[in-house]
Design a protein that fits this description.
- The complex is a heterotetramer, with two copies of chain A and two copies of chain C.
- Chain A is α/β, with parallel strands linked by helices.
- Chain A contains eight helices and 16 strands.
- Chain A has a single domain, classed as Glutaconate Coenzyme A-transferase (3-Layer(aba) Sandwich), CATH 3.40.1080.10.
- In chain A, α1 crosses α2 and α2 crosses α8.
- Chain A is globular, with a radius of gyration of 18 Å.
- The N and C termini of chain A lie close together (about 10 Å).
- Chain C is built from eleven helices and eleven strands.
- In chain C, β10, α7 and β11 form a beta-alpha-beta unit.
- Chain C is globular.
- Classes of the chains: A alpha/beta, C alpha/beta.
- Chains in contact: A-C, A-D, B-C, B-D, C-D.
Chain lengths: ~260, ~260, ~300, ~300
Amino acid sequence: MKKKDAFETKTPGYTLPQLMVTAAAREVFDHETVFVGMRLPLLGFLLAKSTHAPHAVGVYELGVVRDTVSPEPILTMGDLPNLSGASWLADTIDMMGLLQKGLVDVSFIGGAQVDRFGNLNTSYIGGFRSPRTRLPGSGGACDLASLAKRHIIVMTHEKRRFKEKVDYITSPGYGEGPGWRERVGLPRGGPCAVITTLGILRFDPDSKEMILVSVHPGVSAETVQSHTGWPLKTARNLAQTPPPTREELTVIRRFDPGGYWTGT
Amino acid sequence: MKKKDAFETKTPGYTLPQLMVTAAAREVFDHETVFVGMRLPLLGFLLAKSTHAPHAVGVYELGVVRDTVSPEPILTMGDLPNLSGASWLADTIDMMGLLQKGLVDVSFIGGAQVDRFGNLNTSYIGGFRSPRTRLPGSGGACDLASLAKRHIIVMTHEKRRFKEKVDYITSPGYGEGPGWRERVGLPRGGPCAVITTLGILRFDPDSKEMILVSVHPGVSAETVQSHTGWPLKTARNLAQTPPPTREELTVIRRFDPGGYWTGT
Amino acid sequence: MDFTKRLSLSEAVSRFVQDGDSVAMGCAQETLIPFAAGHEMIRRQKKNLTLIGPISDILFDQLVGAGCVAEIRAAWIGNVITGSAYHFRRAVEEKTLRIKDHSNLTLAMALKAGAMGVPFMPTSTALGSDLYRTNPDLKTVSCPFSGVPVTAVAALTPDVAVVHVQRADIFGNSHVWGNLGVTREACLASRHVILTAEEIVDTKVITGDPNRVVVPGFRVSAVVHAPWGGHPSPVPGYYNRDHQAFIDYRNCSKTPEGFRAWRKEWVDPVDDGRTYAEILGKARRESLAIKHRRPSVPVDYGY
Amino acid sequence: MDFTKRLSLSEAVSRFVQDGDSVAMGCAQETLIPFAAGHEMIRRQKKNLTLIGPISDILFDQLVGAGCVAEIRAAWIGNVITGSAYHFRRAVEEKTLRIKDHSNLTLAMALKAGAMGVPFMPTSTALGSDLYRTNPDLKTVSCPFSGVPVTAVAALTPDVAVVHVQRADIFGNSHVWGNLGVTREACLASRHVILTAEEIVDTKVITGDPNRVVVPGFRVSAVVHAPWGGHPSPVPGYYNRDHQAFIDYRNCSKTPEGFRAWRKEWVDPVDDGRTYAEILGKARRESLAIKHRRPSVPVDYGY
């Protein structure tokens, strides 16, 4: 079973989604509590657990906490192997309580539109009064963006998605810039990284603006700029995203044997 | 095992606590949801379930719902026979949710002090700043008095307990009279009856004041008045509390075989 | 409780789901989705429903496609492993469907408020977000103790919660296990609860383990025996998730013709007396069956 | 989780209960009261504790009697089957003990707020009552949607919750069954959780039935093997309530001498190396044992 609309771009030896999953996994430190989102982050967490973060604990919004990898590959968090042998099966509100109390270190969110301050839109393209496109909505994304200590955004890098201003803030980033989160009353957090199909961006601690810190192999800073809807700042020491190691690829293929999420 | 401070007063063929338990049981209608309090009401509920209210459902604040009588006698709601075969074992907050939603028809509360509007004190005798006696406190009583559709008070009838004004309102009755509950925002309810060691009192629908409606066998209205700290109104058709039937006594003795709560 | 609440699926939906009702479904998110009951609503052509649920893994889209829905209050409506829900998307774009946008947490708190019988619940989520612009049930208030701003979420009290469970007795007592999502809150918040159950069991099985009960029997209006009633979502203890069915639905639901074909294959035959298990077929049932059994260690409720 | 959290009772109490701490105990109300842990606090002469719990069936009175307590935040402090708690009563009357008066619902909501990480919770109880006069953590606010008044209860976040459970592994994963009171809320609200367990079991027993877990292992600081650690309160699956012990304590606790004698019989001998089971004696243990076993029917978490 292969996901039809999976990214088709290929790089020798690994796929782009495999690179992105690897980058996501590297954002998790050992012993952290991770609120695992849908899709690629599922694999990112499994990869981190299987490599450098064996003590990480995974929290899933549907009511699952587990500190072991699932005994079989899963396509989604509700698959029974992800429930079997869990540490805790409970209510969404219990998971959200951990988050709201500030006990979740890092979380992952996908986005359809993002702006320079990391505000995310997964609800309405073209304004909510007469939307051109209705997207699925927040799910837990707004909660993760509001309440995790930090969150990582994973998304496709296109000019129509990286916009000066998003059409709708589903999941708050740094709002209008420094001090905004404090002003509206968000208790902590903010986006920490954006892992895209072209590179990795982080946020300036002072201006809260997105900065390109790493480009994927074969991608130039200019290419990234040309796919971004505002003048993008670039880190002085721009890095190249390290490709997945052989071990990382082995783990990804073990958990996504059909390549549904990451291709083959 | 016999409770040392159980009521010692005796009437031929049955004890006073047995009469009170019977009166309490008769306040429960079939198919009602009953929030069962500590002590005598435990037996009252078991008696009602075993006689005229077989479909009553019992809710216990520690997190138990059961629609059958316990398989063995219990002294208190936490005894394991009261948990075994329950319909639901859950959280206090779940029980309180039923109550707060208005799904509890009737509840029972014990009191140390009561006033003419049915306000109850189980916290401080002599004012809370320099209490002469500190009592155990609310437990769930304040919640039952605030939120059940109606509640029944069960207590000893003495002048020092039936006071013009209670020293502290642990569990609100009709406050200062008509319209008070609505004014403070209580969503429903109010005391429906007071079952005492001398008789049964109810509340005037208009004035919300306590009225003596029934005296126990051998007790006169004058005796009740002399044990009450305000000029007590008496119903035109003052009744005599019907004694327990043989069947009722059999059931009470089955559930309180040692007479711990009701004597022998 | 000594009168039965057992009804056929058709009776239960006719009696307890009225046109215009608000209906909570899919409360455990990706698992235990009550597809059988949803499909019955399609067959009975329910109208103007307000659907309530955290995320909807294609069930809400199916009801929108069948013309049953006037409003949705949810956090996410799509197809978890493929993305968009096409009927939902079209209906919003064509303005034939009203939406109140929630997050998973605001929806959980709205149902918790309904379950607890309080008019609202506070949360720290969604502050500064545009959910406030598309959901009048969110307002910012200050904590009366600390002064910090919080989002107040108005209570939701659905007319009916439809919940798929593993086992129930005929009186409404039931066991659910696995992740629970907002199942507990939805059941306790709703006026009526319809349970569809994989198995009907003796009352003693249920009262023999009362900690597994998420809603007491006296709050339940109907119990329906519906084997495979959660398919294609996974049901712990009974069957795995049927990924292919979600992918197939994605493809079918892109066009009205595709949707009609899907409906003709999966929904309508039940009216001709075929069981869902028959429609599914033996080979597929076996492919979804539990291969690795993991029974729990019993606990003792003796005295 | 691959490091053990198993400690002796003494180590656990020394490490995670500091003088001046706020300690939630007796969270399941009449059942599963952590008497063993409370007695250890007496033996270690803990000072200035703030005790938090819905009702306390004599445990809080014992700690007050031993001079460990500065403040209590609770709904009811007494002896369920006999009435007053004499040390508690004297201490309040002599003004050596501060009280914040709760009802069971306001206390549950305070801990729920702490568990959920919100600064307060709304409830409709206690409006018009004098609990407001003896508890500054209650304030009346208006619902921002309906305008109706509700009681706002400030969040409680205890330093430590001490919970007696039936079975736990050495990593903090545990199973609790029976009525739960505010156990869930107290564990999730507290900075530390100490579990005392009737049995230490393999992790697989716990993760083999994750719906029975009320607090995830990573939130637990210490696991103590404490057989009979809930006595004289009842522990589902293990032993019945020892009514006589509650009656005896009532009689002893009327005077300081009586209390000293009680302490000398039940609390102090553990420091001389006697186990609580030994103190209790075989005959009494047998009289409290479960006579009618009622094992639950397993459920399957396979895939």
